[in-house]
Amino acid sequence: xxxDSRLSGVLHILLHMxxxxxxxxxxxxxxxxxxxxxxxxxxxxxxRQQGYVSSEKGHGGGWTLACDLSKVTFRDIYIAxxxxxxxxxxxxxxxxxCLVEQAVNAALQQAFHDAEERLLSxxxxxxxxxxxxxxxxxxxxxxxxxxxxxxxxxx
Length: 155
Known about the structure:
GO terms for molecular function: DNA-binding transcription factor activity. The chain is mainly alpha-helical. It has a single domain (6-152), classed as Arc Repressor Mutant, subunit A, CATH 1.10.10.10. 60% of the residues lie in helices and 5% in strands. It contains six helices and two strands, in the order H-H-H-E-E-H-H-H. Strands 1-2 form a two-stranded antiparallel sheet. A hairpin with a 5-residue loop joins strand 1 (53-56) and strand 2 (62-65). The N and C termini lie far apart (52 Å).
């Protein structure tokens, strides 16, 4: 089963965009997401409608962030993407009159609902700024580790 990775991909490119001094083209973003620029434009259009990004056409144009990373959560981006399905698990519908199928589906539906609510609640707690800080911490740790490795070669 193919998984929907748009949320992960969009978060990825938004963080890259946060580090850029100027606009980033759909072509450059498509390389980051390993997809077609048309797909990027379609995804980014939803983010633009919500005011998270802006775009300029023409030479020197492209996409730029138009939001404060500390005020935008994973949940905000998820909603801007059109609320893609969170769970790939479903339930049977082959025998809707079967009482066993009805009982199983009712229990599963409640469990799915509860799981989605918890996940969306967690998405609402994580801002893009928090994710950006994590990236910077990882980068600093990597640079520090490489500096130690370089230093170790001196002995």
